[in-house]
TrEMBL record:
Residues 20-226 form the Glycogen debranching enzyme bacterial and archaeal type N-terminal domain. Residues 279-642 form the Glycogen debranching enzyme C-terminal domain. GO terms for molecular function: 4-alpha-glucanotransferase activity; amylo-alpha-1,6-glucosidase activity. InterPro entries: 6-hairpin_glycosidase_sf, 6hp_glycosidase-like_sf, AGL/Gdb1, GDE_C, Glycogen_debranch_N. Pfam families: GDE_C, GDE_N. PANTHER family: GLYCOGEN DEBRANCHING ENZYME (PTHR10569). This is Glycogen debranching enzyme, putative. One of its GO terms (biological process) is glycogen catabolic process.
Amino acid sequence: MIEIGFGPQVCGELTGGATREWLVPDGRGGYAMGTVSGLRTRRYHGLLVVAGDTPATRRVGLASLDASVLLPGGAQVRLGAHEWSSGDVDPRGYELLEHFALVDGLPRWRWRIGDTVVERELAMLPGRPCVAVVHRLVSGGPVRLELAAVCTWRDAHGERRADGPAPRMEPVDGGAVIEGAFRLAGPDWTPEGQWWLGVHHREEAARGLHPDEDLWYAGRFAGQLAGPGDTVSVLAWADQLDLQPPPATEVVATARRRNRRVVAAARPADAVEATLTLAADAFVVRTDQAPVDVVAGYPWFGAWSRDTMISYEGLFLCTNRATEGRELLRSYAATLSEGMLANTADTGRVEYNTVDATLWFLHAVNRHVTVTGDIDLGNELLPALRGVVDAHLAGTRYGIAVDPADGLLTQGGTPGVALTWMDARVYGVPVTPRTGKPVEVNALWINGLAGLVELTELAGQDIGELERLHERAVTAFRERFPAPTGWLYDVVDGPAPTYPLGGAPHHDDDLLRPNQLLAWSLPHAPLEPDEATLRRVAAGLLTPLGPRSLSPDSPGFIGRHRGTPAERDGGYHQGTVWPWLLGPYVDACRRGKISVDELFVAIEAHLTEYGLGSVSETADGLPPHGATGCPFQAWSVAELLRCRRTR
């Protein structure tokens, strides 16, 4: 894997250290997450964040474990870091950090106090909500180490305040149980029990959200580090509180061995692929509700079917996890209703509210069968896939239907609903409703029909009707989508801006957006790439981290994805960069014989800049294209891995 490590100039200065984040997943949707500096900058940061029935229903437990070194002369040196609502940062333990590194995907810190060096390693027990934190004396000593357990128990999206009840603490052997939900265990436990008031999260303030909370100082562990190699360790875990995990040092060793196996099984071609393989692993989870699922992004997303299917090839086929992928495709197929794939989003209930997730599902199944030769799965799912086509021909929810006039797919447009991947809403109103016939939806429809022809032929069944549907849609696409501007319309047959949804006359939207890339990039794309057109698209949209969602010279362009929730949602698809779109852009260029050899330089460097070892959800549309959104995003990682691996 690529080397990810920082010295004192990055670690010891908050602009660098507190804006680089690490993630250690537990394989169930929970995680440990924080910054290089150790400062908690988000409400989502913590050493034990536990997933509920679904990955989206997470709760923060152990917020931090603040180390203090007691030197032989009696001086106490605090190694933790907190920011307070007053604006003060105290303590400032990051100023003593001499090194931070990710080693086999696990974070490691080293603090230096003269000739005394203390190291911390952290890991989660794979498949269980359990974190192990190991402190080791590297040099110097003897010293005494104290570890303050700072806790809460709350929804990851909220805060807990001291004006409510204090967390319940029950003493148990070697520590305490907090709120009956998670357990702390380590040496020489001393209960404390007091509120720390006004802990500040600077990233939440920047996102226009409430930035402060109160945390519960539950107590402290302590141990002697007599000489180099001595350790003091703490465990924290939820679920099966009576089932003691392995020793912390063993948890770290187990996690490290597993990460190495995951990377080795993918047989990466280079260090970047190895890093992306481990990044991809973070999103593949197993829960009590699903044998295999995909977390769309950390720290705040759960499972979304659209993200899962776009990510499928990169997360599963490019990492030699086809067996798990097979399980996932079968379980998602069981959610089909009226020809639509469930979008089991973060609301806690099953929803059917996308026009494109089902079409990405057709694509994922076809890619699985094509890459693996798993004809049995194709045969098993074929009736369900044919049912998707039949339902779209008959018409399904939200006015989604095949237009009998041309064979293209249209969405009727329901007020308050955005059905494409450009699904942001502000105060319930879609920013980009894209009513009518969106270009990428119809590219996916044509691609899905062609893939279904292949699966039907492999099953020895008649393909005549499907071929006719496909040919008709291709013909109509080639007639309707090329625009006088020199690129493709983003939507055709939509309502005119001055008319209500479903009104007349029809309007064709020629704003320069990246959705058209799918018309050239998909395996069964309706168009052959044209170099001149692709260069026009690149001139308006391409940035170092991927294509923008809207060109800067278009009306409504927003170059910074920052501010309040409404401001961020308003700019989400109005110029913001989406790294996942690099995949379709690269595919289109390769099909058009355009070199992309130098295209990966910036995004590979990005692996060390924001979410360490991973790729962000979004970035600003204007230079310097600062990363935004989730630091760890499934489809961003998956598409970069896929398009690098298939070159």
